[in-house]
């Protein structure tokens, strides 16, 4: 039997993405975000979630895709990266996607920056999904900057 991997499927600028479900702690609706001065351009600010300060990153800005207005579908996906909790703003969370490992193709080389954190692409019955390696989206320097906010 083929090995299955599970991903949380979400949308950014009309494109379908997935991140490994094991990195996702929870998904919340948009809340008020407190801006932080001199934060990296992709950081929207911080939130207090049950007594924990969590930096909030607009994944659209980080991945350099079209940023749309937040609406009732906009969500914050809280992920844990090396014991750091980070909230990622996405346009819409869709569903848990189950994909056979053999069905994940290597991403076509598009740009050196994107190739660092796109681990592959997979076709589902509905669409093509870009699989992000969430552990590689942020550089060491960016992770340190995010740490200083929490």
UniProtKB/TrEMBL annotation:
One cellular component term from this protein's GO annotations in UniProt: cytosol
Residue span(s) of domain CheW-like: 4-143
Domain of life: Bacteria
Organism the protein comes from: Candidatus Mucispirillum faecigallinarum
GO annotation, biological process: chemotaxis; signal transduction
Annotated coiled-coil segments of the chain: none
Name this protein carries in UniProt: Chemotaxis protein CheW
PROSITE patterns referenced in this protein's UniProt entry, alphabetically: CHEW
């Amino acid at each position: 039997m083929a090995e299955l991997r599970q991903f949380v499927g979400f949308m950014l600028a009309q494109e379908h993405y997935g991140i490994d479900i094991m990195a996702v702690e929870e998904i919340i609706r948009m809340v008020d975000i407190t801006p932080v001065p001199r934060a990296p351009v992709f950081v929207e600010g911080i939130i207090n979630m049950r007594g924990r300060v969590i930096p909030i990153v607009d994944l659209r800005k980080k991945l350099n895709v079209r940023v749309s207005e937040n609406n009732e579908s906009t969500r914050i996906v809280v992920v844990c990266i090396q014991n750091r909790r980070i909230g990622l703003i996405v346009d819409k969370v869709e569903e848990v996607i189950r994909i056979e490992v053999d069905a994940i193709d290597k991403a076509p080389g598009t740009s050196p920056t994107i190739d660092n954190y796109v681990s592959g692409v997979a076709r589902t019955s509905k669409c093509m999904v870009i699989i992000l390696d969430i552990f590689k989206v942020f550089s060491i320097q960016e992770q340190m900057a995010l740490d200083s906010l929490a």
